[in-house]
Write a structure and sequence with these properties.
By secondary structure, the protein is an alpha/beta fold. It is built from six helices and six strands; from the N terminus they run E-H-H-E-H-H-E-H-E-E-H-E. The protein has one domain: TIM Barrel (Alpha-Beta Barrel), CATH 3.20.20.70. The strands form two sheets. Strands 1-2-3-4 form a four-stranded parallel beta sheet, covered by helices on one side. Strands 5-6 form a two-stranded parallel ribbon. The two termini are 28 Å apart.
Length: 137
């Protein structure tokens, strides 16, 4: 049984990702993948899939699309949440938390085993979904 599906939003410069994700992003973009095409595909998927769908991607493509337009499109399709590793928690809280809330989108933050307890508490206080624990290499 699957509890949720995480869908990657390809980006041309995925520096925080490992070689496999970097290669898949490059190939997807080379083959014509765009944010709009991803949304079209997710709309089709949502017709038959009822479990939560989470988009994971860098903030730049979301900014390029327009943050509110992106959130609105996600809500229209039925996307449940976003994982945006390069969106700082304080920037999210100050500028985007109300917008995400308006469109009923969870914002899922990342922590590592090295994240301090104080930082985890702060992230937890801002989170409305779950917190994603990234394993250390």
């Amino acid at each position: 049984e699957v509890d949720m599906i995480e869908i990657g939003l390809p980006f041309s410069d995925p520096l925080a990702d490992g070689p496999t994700i970097q290669a898949s992003s490059t190939l997807a973009l080379k083959n014509g993948m765009t944010t709009q095409l991803l949304f079209q595909q997710l709309e089709k998927i949502r017709e038959t899939v009822s479990i939560p769908l989470i988009i994971m991607g860098y903030f730049n493509p979301i900014l390029q699309y327009g943050v509110e337009a992106f959130c609105e499109k996600c809500a229209h399709i039925g996307i449940d949440g976003l994982i945006i590793p390069d969106l700082p928690v304080d920037v999210y809280q100050e500028h985007y938390q109300a917008l995400f809330s308006q469109y009923n989108l969870l914002n899922i933050f990342l922590i590592t085993p090295q994240t301090s307890e104080e930082r985890i508490r702060y992230i937890d206080s801002v989170s409305n979904g779950f917190i994603y624990m990234v394993s250390s290499a």
